[in-house]
């Protein structure tokens, strides 16, 4: 459902949020290793999230990535919007160009329910809530 950029971005921002709750700043290499993603690709995704003020990048030997306190309530929908736009909420479940309520594909009405559920989950889940709910073991995101 999500692009690879969005998948890596969600993993990265969740990992950074978890580390932020422990007052840790994390390096690009640590993030890419922990979320099992290519470092150069992760850097581009984090650059987008930094430009959108979701994550904060600090340069220097003690630098890295963190999330400011006032950004920990960022909803997952904001991350998805930055990385994938809103196509996930409007696209056809079969990828057809012509699919809507007037000219539905065979899955249209069932997929609308799934899309609405996904939107609800993304709009009601904050980085802080996920970080607080996670175990200290982050290896689940390496699968």
TrEMBL record:
InterPro entries: Tscrpt_reg_Rrf2, WH-like_DNA-bd_sf, WH_DNA-bd_sf. GO terms for molecular function: DNA-binding transcription factor activity. It comes from the Bacteria. One of its GO terms (cellular component) is cytosol. This is Rrf2 family transcriptional regulator. It comes from Aquimarina aggregata. The lineage of its organism: Bacteria, Pseudomonadati, Bacteroidota, Flavobacteriia, Flavobacteriales.
């Amino acid at each position: 459902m999500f692009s690879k950029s969005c998948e890596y971005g969600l993993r990265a921002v969740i990992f950074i949020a978890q580390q932020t709750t422990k007052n840790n700043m994390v390096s690009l290499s640590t993030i890419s290793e922990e979320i099992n993603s290519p470092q150069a690709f992760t850097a581009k995704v984090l650059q987008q999230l930094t430009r959108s003020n979701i994550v904060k990048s600090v340069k220097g030997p003690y630098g890295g990535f963190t999330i400011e306190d006032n950004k920990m309530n960022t909803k997952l929908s904001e991350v998805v919007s930055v990385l994938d736009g809103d196509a996930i909420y409007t696209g056809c479940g079969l990828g057809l160009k012509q699919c809507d309520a007037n000219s539905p594909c065979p899955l249209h009405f069932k997929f609308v329910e799934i899309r609405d559920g996904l939107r609800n989950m993304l709009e009601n889940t904050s980085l802080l809530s996920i970080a607080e709910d996670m175990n200290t073991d982050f290896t689940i995101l390496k699968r």
